[in-house]
């Protein structure tokens, strides 16, 4: 076998060398054709032939109809909602009367600390009368957006009233409290703008920031040093800072912690770095300041320095809806480009007339603010020594926020503890307080806690009773 | 379907072009004359850039008095429009004390509950005295009253689903619910002409969004097949779930959605469906139960049914009706339920009373009469307009009828001329509709009497002749037979 292979190889080699060394057999055009020239020409021809061939690409095969059918049959969607477990079926307490300081819940009378009725206007005679008049004249709904015959004279009166009360040129009404801020932010902030916001802002603000598609940077909750660093960083990083719109978004009283933003400090930083301020005053309008004009009055900052102020009217003013105020340019721009204003039905007229009556009442009776402040101070003092809980809110905030001294480590367990405290306080002592509930869509990193909404119409005995009850239950549950 | 001929398209574009040129010239003069003056303080970027509000300043401002007209009465069949005047070419409009009584063809008052009603208003006032104006609290804390639970049960029964949840604003219902159900890794397929609240909700959810041609079930099928086969674009994994969002009556077209065909497609491909019945609940269907009843679709097939109380029930707010599990889940996660002040109790009572009237549970047959009246009124008005030669969109039985105007010069002319003849109409142009397809939109109510409608028709006919809006030949025409358009309709984003 091997010798046959050797013989074949030898004869092939001989044949090749013969072809190479064959003497010149022909002379073409004066060029002698040697044997090796033939082989070289053959090689060149083969190379050229290969070069002209198309390169190999795997053929594109789009899915056939049958294959698409199979894929569609195979595909199984997830269920629309996750499995409902036992602990998810808690029902909220049902009110059977107005949500004043003493309300009837599930059949018995309770002390109500769950309504943000700061000025005690729920059940006020004058407001009820003006609403009855509005209902008889205008019906309930306004049957149309503001651009299509949904603008009723009470809306215009209400806007003028609020603007006059705050001292701004104009204001604009929205039909729902939380939709105010998440319509205002996308109306002014577009892609490419820069926003620096507090990390503890509530969901509606977060949603507005997300919808605006701007670049958002968060600073540590209510920490002015962190704000200054963030402003510095953001200004340094952007190439043409004067050409991009820049905003600082803060709340006056944070819903998630009860802290109050130091407005004078923020205004100083804003002027230094050339930012505009968007301030959400939902819980401070009608509460802070000597005459209830909000955080600007409280901190002694002229109202013109704050570019955009928004507020929900579902708190101190005991009505529904929201408003936004600022310079004429700011307000006019929103009338055409704010989604929640243009595409939604306008505020029912009776709620607007309730707002007018509420502002009137506040202007005529500034003493309710003194009552409210006294109540807040009393409750703050009483709650400063609850076992296992610590007061995290500012001492002027009508929203008294208590968080766990030592968290269990998991949000769910914390939630469970706080809710059991609230439940026991309601069942055993008939005091209605609430534990903050977070939606799964909420990205706020602040801890949850218990909230007390103090009203000007709470009496001192109410506050003492609530404090005693909480101390007793907290000692039982958290020990 | 809109029939946009080449002549109309050309003249409309020419008009817009002339307005654009004039606008630019004015901007140029503005810049030259006040180049040193600036409204914004040093170092701040302006709140609105030059071109962003060009349309507002130079085009919309010319017709600004046609929109946002204030009224001094309830938005019933006849209303009092407050007269306004302007000294500076519509830049600022000033109110006067004078009012004009006009026939109202613009408010969403399909069943006539807008003004004080003999059954509803006394009950609303009583609930106001009992529960006061607002609860000042969110639903999960201390804002749920007996009225809210009663309303949720009633809505669920009315619509035909096991459970329901109500919110204080229709717009927020869509923008807050969709992110609670859908998140990253899911797909939303929505009709190309869906309302802004749905678009915002879809965007806020973080899911991928695909659009299918308006009311076209075969295109929906194509999109579904392609998307399921292809999966997520960059990760090549299958979609976690797919939600198809459609509306019952499209308010800018006045047409009903092709619900049975779309439901069949969604069932075949296992996609979930979300039906927004803002304009159709209470207004269509034999007993007012919306497009499902009208088109013969079982409500149990639609996964999520949404609606608002602003249009047919004369109140405010919105609802979602779905299975018990979905509603339980929403009660725990939906931000509008956890963070927003609960719906005002008098408004809740208004809806409860209105639904009771519609169902006949108030002891009279006013509800049935109202439903029959609105259907009869809509069909009469639509056929008369079509006979006169107007181009009217929408299907029979729908109380919304847009009349095409197209040309920007005719839009304010129509509106102002109608107002001078005591007819209040609504005109819609860009950006709510495509640039070339401006229209006037009529909303018929059960409160309109036959005489009102005849007067309305007379005025519209006269003004239509004056302005030149009768694009089609006079006489009855079968619009459904010819469904084509000579120019492609592109929705301008």
Automatic annotation (TrEMBL), chain A:
One Gene Ontology term from the biological process aspect of the record: ceramide biosynthetic process
Cofactor: pyridoxal 5'-phosphate
SUPFAM superfamilies linked: PLP-dependent transferases (SSF53383)
Keyword Lipid metabolism tagged: yes
UniProt catalytic activity: L-serine + hexadecanoyl-CoA + H(+) = 3-oxosphinganine + CO2 + CoA
Swiss-Prot/TrEMBL keywords: Acyltransferase, Lipid metabolism, Pyridoxal phosphate, Sphingolipid metabolism, Transferase
Enzyme kind, highest EC tier: transferase
UniProt GO MF annotations: pyridoxal phosphate binding; serine C-palmitoyltransferase activity
Record's keyword annotation contains Lipid metabolism: yes
Top-level taxonomic group: Eukaryota
Subunit structure: Heterodimer with LCB2. Component of the serine palmitoyltransferase (SPT) complex, composed of LCB1 and LCB2.
Protein name: serine C-palmitoyltransferase
TrEMBL record, chain B:
Family classification: Belongs to the class-II pyridoxal-phosphate-dependent aminotransferase family.
Reactions catalysed: L-serine + hexadecanoyl-CoA + H(+) = 3-oxosphinganine + CO2 + CoA
Gene Ontology molecular-function annotations: pyridoxal phosphate binding; serine C-palmitoyltransferase activity
Native species: Carex littledalei
Span of domain Aminotransferase class I/classII large: 101-460
Pfam families: Aminotran_1_2
InterPro entries: Aminotrans_II_pyridoxalP_BS (IPR001917), Aminotransferase_I/II_large (IPR004839), AON_synthase_class-II (IPR050087), PyrdxlP-dep_Trfase (IPR015424), PyrdxlP-dep_Trfase_major (IPR015421), PyrdxlP-dep_Trfase_small (IPR015422)
Full protein name: serine C-palmitoyltransferase
Lipid bilayer topology: Single-pass membrane protein
Main location: endoplasmic reticulum
Highest taxon in the source lineage: Eukaryota
Associated pathway: Sphingolipid metabolism; Lipid metabolism; sphingolipid metabolism
């Amino acid at each position: 076998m091997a010798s046959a292979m050797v013989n074949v190889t030898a004869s092939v080699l001989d044949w090749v060398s013969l072809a190479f060394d064959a003497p010149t057999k022909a002379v073409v055009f004066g060029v002698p054709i040697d044997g090796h020239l033939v082989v070289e020409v053959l090689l060149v021809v083969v190379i050229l032939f290969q070069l002209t061939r198309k390169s190999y690409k795997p053929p594109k095969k789009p899915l056939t109809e049958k294959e698409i059918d199979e894929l569609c049959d195979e595909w199984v969607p997830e269920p629309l909602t996750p499995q409902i477990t036992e602990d998810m079926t808690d029902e909220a307490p049902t009110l059977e009367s107005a949500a004043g300081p003493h309300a009837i819940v599930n059949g018995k009378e309770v002390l109500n600390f769950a309504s943000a009725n700061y000025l005690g206007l729920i059940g006020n005679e004058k407001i009820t009368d003006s609403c009855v008049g509005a209902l008889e004249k205008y019906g309930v709904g306004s049957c149309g957006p503001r651009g299509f015959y949904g603008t009723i004279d009470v809306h215009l009166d209400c806007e003028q009233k609020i603007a006059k009360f705050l001292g701004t040129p104009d204001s604009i009404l929205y039909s729902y409290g939380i939709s105010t801020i998440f319509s205002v932010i996308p109306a002014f902030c577009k892609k490419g703008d820069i926003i620096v916001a507090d990390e503890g802002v509530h969901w509606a603000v977060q949603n507005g920031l997300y919808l605006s598609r701007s670049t958002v940077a968060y600073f540590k909750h209510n920490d002015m040093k962190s704000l200054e660093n963030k402003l510095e960083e953001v200004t340094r990083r952007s190439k043409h800072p004067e050409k991009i719109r820049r905003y600082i978004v803060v709340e006056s009283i944070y819903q998630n912690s009860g802290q109050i933003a130091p407005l004078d400090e923020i205004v100083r930083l804003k002027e230094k770095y050339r930012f505009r301020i968007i301030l959400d005053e939902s819980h401070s309008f009608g509460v802070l300041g000597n005459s209830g004009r909000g955080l600007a009055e409280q901190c002694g900052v002229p109202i013109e320095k704050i570019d955009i102020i928004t507020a929900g009217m579902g708190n101190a003013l005991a009505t529904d809806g929201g408003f936004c105020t600022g310079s004429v340019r700011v307000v006019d721009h929103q009338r055409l480009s704010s989604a929640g204003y243009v595409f939604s039905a306008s505020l029912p007229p009776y709620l607007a007339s309730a707002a007018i009556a509420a502002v009137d009442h506040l202007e005529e009776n500034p003493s309710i603010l003194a009552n409210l402040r006294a109540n807040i101070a009393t409750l703050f003092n009483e709650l400063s020594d609850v076992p296992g809980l610590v007061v995290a809110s500012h001492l002027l905030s009508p929203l008294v926020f208590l968080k766990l001294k030592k968290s269990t480590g998991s949000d769910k367990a914390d939630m469970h503890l706080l809710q059991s405290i609230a439940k026991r306080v309601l069942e055993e002592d008939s005091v209605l307080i609430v534990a903050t509930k977070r939606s799964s869509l909420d990205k706020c990193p602040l801890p949850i806690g218990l909230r007390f909404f103090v009203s000007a119409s709470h009496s001192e005995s109410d506050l003492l009773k609530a404090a005693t009850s909480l101390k007793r239950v907290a000692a039982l549950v958290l020990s | 379907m809109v029939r946009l001929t080449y002549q109309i398209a050309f003249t409309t574009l020419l008009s817009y072009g002339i307005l654009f040129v004039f606008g630019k010239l004015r901007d140029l003069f503005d810049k030259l004359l006040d180049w040193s003056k600036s409204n914004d303080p040093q170092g701040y970027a302006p709140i609105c850039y030059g071109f962003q509000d060009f349309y507002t300043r130079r085009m919309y401002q010319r017709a600004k008095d046609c929109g946002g007209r204030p009224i001094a009465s309830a938005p019933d069949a006849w209303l009092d429009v407050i007269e306004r005047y302007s000294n500076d070419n519509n830049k600022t409009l000033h109110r006067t004390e004078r009012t004009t009584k006009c026939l109202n063809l613009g408010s969403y008052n399909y069943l006539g509950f807008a003004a004080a009603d003999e059954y509803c208003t006394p009950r609303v006032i009583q609930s106001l005295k009992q529960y006061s104006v607002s609860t000042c609290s969110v639903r999960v804390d201390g804002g749920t009253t007996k009225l809210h639970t009663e309303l949720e049960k009633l809505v669920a029964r009315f619509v035909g689903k096991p459970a329901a949840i109500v919110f204080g604003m229709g717009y927020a219902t869509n923008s807050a619910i969709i992110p609670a159900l859908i998140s990253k890794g899911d797909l939303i397929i929505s009709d190309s002409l869906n309302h802004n609240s749905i678009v915002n909700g879809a965007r806020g959810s973080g899911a991928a969004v695909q659009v299918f041609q308006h009311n076209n079930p075969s295109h929906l099928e194509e999109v579904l097949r392609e998307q399921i086969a292809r999966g997520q674009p960059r990760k090549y994994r299958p979609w976690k779930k797919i939600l198809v969002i459609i509306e019952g009556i499209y308010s800018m077209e006045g047409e009903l959605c092709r619900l049975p065909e779309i439901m069949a497609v969604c069932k075949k491909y296992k996609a979930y469906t979300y039906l927004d019945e803002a304009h159709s609940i209470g207004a269509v269907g034999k007993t007012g139960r919306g497009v499902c009843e009208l088109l013969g679709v079982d409500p149990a097939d639609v996964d999520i049914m949404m609606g608002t109380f602003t249009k047919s029930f004369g109140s405010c707010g919105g609802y979602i009706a779905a299975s018990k599990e979905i509603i339980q889940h929403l009660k725990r996660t939906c931000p509008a339920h956890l963070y927003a002040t609960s719906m005002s109790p008098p408004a809740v009572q208004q809806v409860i009373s209105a639904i009771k009237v519609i169902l006949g549970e108030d002891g009279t047959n006013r509800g049935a009469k109202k439903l029959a009246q609105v259907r009869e009124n809509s069909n009469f008005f639509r056929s008369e307009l079509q006979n006169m030669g107007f181009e009217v969109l929408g299907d029979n039985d729908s109380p919304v009828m847009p009349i095409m105007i197209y040309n920007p010069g005719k839009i304010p002319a129509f509106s102002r001329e109608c107002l001078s003849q005591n007819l209040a109409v609504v005109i819609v142009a860009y950006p709510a509709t495509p640039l070339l397809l401006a229209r006037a939109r009529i909303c018929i109510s059960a409160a309109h009497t036959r005489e009102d409608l005849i007067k309305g028709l007379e005025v519209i006919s006269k003004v239509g002749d004056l302005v030149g809006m009768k694009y089609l030949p006079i006489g009855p025409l079968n619009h459904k037979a010819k469904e084509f358009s000579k120019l492609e309709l592109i929705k301008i984003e």
